[in-house]
């Protein structure tokens, strides 16, 4: 172990009083990646900066109900303005070479990427789900999310973020290094400042989950839409389910943009970007079974989460309200005027992100408020997934 490595581990574990953080272990790619139940983030299995279309060949085919273990890698550390060399980039923050993911190194070296045309995100997939057809809904159940490294990055670059022209203050991007591990209160992130250490709780989620669009052009990974994609809803943690209207045969679902933590708004441009290993289950809700969902929305044990999207934030808010009304009308048979009043009295709306060209708003509708309403039971596949922690 090098002196630099020892210093890195000591600072993360905390030689300071009260700093009791055990670094997450590094999870390199698993061996034997040809198994249906595991999908590595190797160059053969990813698209960098662009989303799959209906004409793309799947990198894996699964049956509905199959659980798949999927590796994701972060774009931070592999991008051109970081040298496209994650070993060298993270060495600047004291990370030893053996704690850099080998699949991130391979993606940086071998995957095609066109800055300015493609987005930044590394997308794992697409995965074909047998039997899924346009008009159906794909239910993506998030069963488990596991960190793959004890570190990551928040970036502010290219004059973007909520304050373009103000931050970053100079012409160069600013990369804020974050460390991560298990603390007394659970998974914890830290940022070192001149004034001391900032600590904050972690909430792992995938910023990108989507299905292929029915066209041949590969779109940038940045803007979300009715296909899902880069929705950046921080409530999509383990136990949540995302519902996506299927647009092409077999859905061609994909994931990426792993986050350790994100505040609603994601104002600096990125969240705490760091790689995750995701255990997901894909179920198909057929056109005959579905009662609602012409647009993406999410669900947890506690909340329904309608999502609104538009390049204009005010319009995204209106889109989210309409999505919430649609859910309450179709799922609970509530009259539209009454649903509107209930949303105004009891539902919080939050800005998901303001940095992805198409901006996002999501709502938190408490399912407990609606428990006494008589309604037909939804299909079994449409309920929230069982949680594996």
From TrEMBL:
InterPro entries: FmdA_AmdA. It holds the Pfam family FmdA_AmdA. GO terms for molecular function: hydrolase activity, acting on carbon-nitrogen (but not peptide) bonds, in linear amides. PANTHER family: FORMAMIDASE C869.04-RELATED. This is Acetamidase/Formamidase.
